[in-house]
Amino acid sequence: xxxxxxxxxxxxxxxxxxxxxxxxxxxxxxxxxxxxxxxxxxxxxxxxxxxxxxxxxxxxxxxxxxxxxxxxxxxxxxxxxxxxxxxxxxxxxxxxxxxxxxxxxxxxxxxxxxxxxxxxxxxxxxxxxxxxxxxxxxxxxxxxxxxxxxxxxxxxxxxxxxxxxxxxxxxxxxxxxxxxxxxxxxxxxxxxxxxxxxxxxxxxxxxxxxxxxxxxxxxxxxxxxxxxxxxxxxxxxxxxxxxxxxxxxxxxxxxxxxxxxxxxxxxxxxxxxxxxxxxxxxxxxxxxxxxxxxxxxxxxxxxxxxxxxxxxxxxxxxxxxxxxxxxxxxxxxxxxxxxxxxxxxxxxxxxxxxxxxxxxxxxxxxxxxxxxxxxxxxxxxxxxxxxxxxxxxxxxxxxxxxxxxxxxxxxxx
Amino acid sequence: xxxxxxxxxxxxxxxxxxxxxxxxxxxxxxxxxxxxxxxxxxxxxxxxxxxxxxxxxxxxxxxxxxxxxxxxxxxxxxxxxxxxxxxxxxxxxxxxxxxxxxxxxxxxxxxxxxxxxxxxxxxxxxxxxxxxxxxxxxxxxxxxxxxxxxxxxxxxxxxxxxxxxxxxxxxxxxxxxxxxxxxxxxxxxxxxxxxxxxxxxxxxxxxxxxxxxxxxxxxxxxxxxxxxxxxxxxxxxxxxxxxxxxxxxxxxxxxxxxxxxxxxxxxxxxxxxxxxxxxxxxxxxxxxxxxxxxxxxxxxxxxxxxxxxxxxxxxxxxxxxxxxxxxxxxxxxxxxxxxxxxxxxxxxxxxxxxxxxxxxxxxxxxxxxxxxxxxxxxxxxxxxxxxxxxxxxxxxxxxxxxxxxxxxxxxxx
Lengths: 413, 413
What we know:
2 copies of one chain form a homodimer.
Chain A: H1 13-23, E1 31-35, E2 48-49, E3 59-60, E4 64-67, E5 81-89, E6 104-108, E7 120-123, E8 127-130, E9 133-136, E10 146-147, E11 158-160, H2 168-176, E12 181-185, E13 188-195, E14 199-200, E15 211-212, H3 215-224, E16 229-237, H4 241-254, E17 257-261, H5 271-279, E18 281-285, E19 289-290, E20 296-300, E21 303-308, H6 312-331, E22 341-345, E23 349-350, E24 356-366, E25 369-374, H7 384-387, E26 391-395, E27 401-402, E28 407-412
Parallel strand pairs in A: 5-6, 13-16, 13-17, 14-15, 17-21, 19-24, 22-25
Antiparallel strand pairs in A: 1-12, 2-11, 3-10, 4-6, 4-7, 5-9, 8-9, 18-20, 20-21, 22-28, 23-27, 24-25, 24-26, 26-28
Organism (chains A, B): Staphylothermus marinus
Keywords (chains A, B): Molybdenum cofactor biosynthesis, Transferase
GO molecular function (chains A, B): molybdopterin molybdotransferase activity
């Protein structure tokens, strides 16, 4: 047996994602109506088109006086133009409240429509008011300080496309168009199961040689940060087939997707794997990924079960490299533009050819240069490596590593 | 009067932040105990130190056999070493269950402690089991496949410092140390008030010349994304002194901070400003910021009131440049490392000397190069400029602008 052992036929990360998205056809996520105010990070299930021009009429960007630009050509400090002030037009009032004739002005506030016949607004500070008159000291071109009709969007424009993850600006533009009830995909219900009789979810007086659960809290919060998921944690279940069986059944019936931490290996202790072998099948078992080699995908009851390592850093990498990209693809959602910026590597980092490696790095700035200090590839259980760093670099499968001083693509957590 | 008018003595952004943090001494935020599982994005109010070494004993990173490295020196395919298997040590069991003598091995699973006397683990795939014996085919050095004592952290190590915004990895490392109840700062309660009689918060059949509220939904969600805030929205209140007065009093008593949108100008319509003049004072009124010039800070009832423009893009900029940095400073929290990456500018962008300008850009990649297409500085009401772009560049006060082809520092929303 070669040293690649049980994982001798490991597939690469791209192939794993490809297999996952072809085996899991869809997640069967419903659609629900919600108020736009509660829509942050939800996935919209409809295209949103503008129902009217925005703005719907000329509006003032400033406080001042609506005028005809032609009336104030040549106006200056030494040669002011006097106009008659017909009245005041407040925001929300109709432009037809006043019809401007030559030599006339109407006072307007920020956001006021422009009265009919006007095309420019002179700011307060460029006029002197004198009873019913103003003296204008400035020449302005047409549409100065004016928001033009449809400047933001036109009736019929696509404002937000279906399957967008709604950020504050999307919610704002939907609301601006007068739409308050929107159709979004239900949150993806993700069941999270931890295996391992030695893993503790509650404090105990004397812990002996067990470990406190850190991987599941990491996974739960990373997945929850997506915003369009709802995590249910089923606790740590001991390595006993009957109990795992029961928890799995319940979790499968209550969720769209399961994620498990630990118990995915090849030993007698890995009860989870034996259940998969008996009741379902593996889409892939292990990936050429460092850390995160045990990351696997099984199908049970026609539902996807992602099996992550019990070690926190390996679980993080499996989520980052496989699970989160697959969830985005299944939902037809563009992942957020992840900035990939260049840093100067402070130490050599080796790679094992054939593996994609995620190297945690501390990114820092000295003068105008960004540097990255690698934390090292080793130690998939070393949680402090995620706490002491703030980003990572990815070494592709065909690369033997990077040497100190290389300029590398770097990502933030 | 010069054309800078009412804002003739505008301070710059840095000075505004400085004034804000010196006038608002503290926000008087309490501390509460919560479970670490619900701690995402909260600000921790205590230093967290490790109470024991992690791991607390040698542990196996793999499934296999714990051995003495000295026993298997020289082992190879052609020259295997035979060892007696004394038993199995499961995760959570005590290392003293077995004491290894020369020529002995103990089966271990991933996460198992190493039995006393062993220092190395041979993976399943590097041995052949034969009844109570294994033949080892590989030479390994001491601590191969082994997590060493304190490899993650040592007893007494500072795991997470006070005033850290808790990310998944922080929660995980706190949980790993056996701490489940943590002290965090209460959420900063932020009251949000919209002014403007013409602003609509609910759909109406015929909107005429009013506008639907988009600025407040943008502000609410941007601030909520911080995670350590709790926003209460007081709705749109008409431009009538008595109503604004009453709402302000209520909001001031219920929150640590207020944010208002609109009504901060100098016209008769800007009721809010008149209340500040009567009942409190301005720390600064207007900032040399584009867009977002009206961004102001007042103190009312000893509490900070940030006044933002009613226009969404100007409000966004006021939040990004002033309000959010000030909140971080007041809480003593390091803002998240915001990646600033280099892009090639696709068009000239001018700046008005003395102003700090936030230019929305569409960042995109062509081959290995990142480009940024500016959306233009104009139109603080043009919400679609925030939807069609994905980041921004900042032009400093002393710069006349950037020309096409310049390499510029670029940020993501």
